Amino acid sequence: MWFVLVILGICGVVLIFLAQLRLWRAAAVLTKRRPSWLLFLPAVFLSAAILSGLSAFFRLRAEAVSESEEMPQLYVLLDCSVSMTAEAGQGGSRLEAAKKVLRQLPSAFAGWELALVTFAGNPMLDFPPSTDHRSWLDAVEAVAPERPPFSGSAPGRGLELVAETAAHCPSGKAVVLLFSDGEVHVEEFEQEEAAWRKRDLPCLFVLTGTLGEQRVVPVPWVASGEAISTPDDRQMRRLLGLSASSFQVVTEQSEAGEIDVLSEKIQGLIRKHSVQRAVTETGGKNMTPFLLLLTAVFALLSIFSSRY
Hints:
Shape: elongated
Strand content: 5-15%
Number of helices: 11
Mean pLDDT: 81
CATH class of the largest domain: Alpha Beta
Largest sheet: 6 strands, mixed
Low-confidence stretches: none
Distance between the termini: 36 Å
Helix content: 40-55%
Number of strands: 8
Radius of gyration: 30 Å
Number of domains: 2
Strand order of the largest sheet: 3-2-1-4-5-8
CATH architecture of the largest domain: 3-Layer(aba) Sandwich
Structural class: alpha/beta
């Protein structure tokens, strides 16, 4: 179709040029009033207008196709460290409380690609981005807390795995949903900070467990058989703030369990991220208005040059 339009445009330029040539010959102005090179100006300007107009049209079409083909993606980053076995406050562990919310995601994000990355000291891609929500739910149900030997809690490594996965499945509508009690236990904290500085996806951090409430963690290898864990959002807020990408934090358990609230916040993060991306991106999209303006200028020059 586009080839036909280009051919028609070229034919139009030739016909206009021939018609103008006959008009000038009939008026006997070729040698008396106009230099011979002015004869070509209307055709040159019209050709430039057609070329710039087609370029703008192709760019707009490519942008529209690209945006329509982008599949929204939700990367669930789930903490499976030993502290997630502590009681959540309403019966069951923090991990079970998080899984209870995750079971509602497919109904709230129909048509989205869902992915699952779990982490303790080391991350694991449990489920790549896919619209197969039934299999994704099976992957969620199979998640279990880390077993000895324990490796700590490094959400930054999980974030790096999310970034690697997103690089192979790019989408301009991707967001990270992090469920964690906020505890970070790593040997080299500088590497953890470096991972969060490179974050380029928006992130919604949902705190599992009641903020500031101490809970017992069963640890049989300790003499007392238990340890104390306290959900805290301060460390994660600081890490999230190391990147310019947008983020939100949910600490109220009444909000953390409401899928409608989480869905609204995720949609808001994607809209904000789209605005940030539109502002920072240069080149192709910014050229389109310029090409449209150039088309109008060349068209006007073609009209006026043919009259004098």
